[in-house]
Amino acid sequence: MATGAERGIFVARARERKQGLGPFALRLAAKGHELDLQWTADSSYARLKRRIKSKGTNGRGWVVSSQSEGRRLGEV
Length: 76
Prior knowledge:
Mean pLDDT: 52
Number of domains: 1
Strand order of the largest sheet: 1-2
Strand content: 15-25%
Radius of gyration: 12 Å
Order of helices and strands: HHEEEE
Largest sheet: 2 strands, antiparallel
Structural class: alpha+beta
């Protein structure tokens, strides 16, 4: 689990790379919710895998939770 400082760095990097966690995820991060962000090397921008403890959307119609692991469950 990332520390608060590490989460801040990951969110900043995501913004810089225009990976866009989306407004919902950024609001959760700002409120101090646990965001487990891991960089993977499967694309030129090193896409983020994101898990958010509480269920919600990441602002682009993707439902993210510890169960769904970011699978597309439909527009929300």
